Amino acid sequence: MASSSSDRRAAVDKIRRDAQRADQRQGRVILTVAVMVALLIVGGAAFKPVKDWWDLRSLNKVQLADIGAKASVCGPRSFKSAEGDQQHVDPGTFVDYSKEPSPPAFGQHEIYPDSIKRKLYTEKDRPRVEMLVHNLEHGYTILWYDETIAKDDKQMDDLRGIAAKFQGQDDYRLKVKLVPWLKKDGKPFPEGQHVAITHWAKTVADEDKKIAEKAKVTAEAGVWEYCSAVSGDALKKFMTAYPYLNSPEPTAA
């Protein structure tokens, strides 16, 4: 009898040990699968930033003027008398810029501008247009790009390369924003043009005075330059003609 009872206990103990080992194996399998899924999720999320960083390495030693196309992809600058100095609206207020060329280069604007810290934006995180117009009043040059550029990996790499040349917050010569112009924002750029560079100038640059006078613009002006492609060369020349100091409020961040 004693032997039979001992055998039964041994059998039960074996069943328990086998069950415990099975549970442990199952737990390890579940943990392994969970870790693999987590790695795939993290890896997928990290892939694009890593790829962007890798692609950007090729532009690290390239001068601004050598990024993207040459300035010849851009047309002549255009001008319109500016208004809207210190005409602030509350955050979230819609301002109709449809009477001006797209995108706006001056006008009423939100009371708070965007920070100088961020240079390049996408459709997902771009500040409101009304906020960016306030940046224009403070001397920023804004390069707006349309959907065609946004879908072009090479040109987006060029924009990232340009943005990298303007990193920093303390030097106001770095007042640049590279932002998308969306269909919901207003009129598209002129046909065949996919980039617009804008500035709110206190005075027209000497090199542009003849063109501006034909448009009857002699003082404070909105300045536009349209391009068919991203051009660091054009941006450099534009910002040389219209530095941050040439604006209604250049000393404001």
What is the topology, as strand order, of the major beta sheet?
1-7-6-4-5
Low-confidence stretches: 50-56
Q: Label the overall shape.
A: elongated
Residue share in helices? 25-40%
Taken in chain order, the helices and strands follow as: HEEEHEHHEEHEH
β-strand percent reads 5-15%
Q: End-to-end span in angstroms?
A: 93 Å
Largest sheet: 5 strands, mixed
Mean pLDDT: 88
- Total number of beta strands: 7
Task: Please indicate the count of domains.
Answer: 2
The DSSP helix count reads 6
Rg is 29 Å
Structural class: alpha/beta
What features would you describe in this structure?
It comes from Nocardioides jiangxiensis. This is DUF3105 domain-containing protein. The chain crosses the membrane at residues 29-47. By secondary structure, this protein is of the alpha/beta class. The protein folds into two domains: 1-57; 64-241, no CATH class. Helices cover 38% and strands 13% of the residues. It is built from six helices and seven strands, in the order αβββαβααββαβα. The strands form two sheets. Strands 1-7-6-4-5 form a five-stranded mixed β-sheet. Strands 2-3 form a two-stranded parallel ribbon. The longest helix is centred in the N-terminal third of the chain and has 56 residues, at 2-57. The termini are far apart. The model is unreliable at 50-56 (pLDDT under 50).
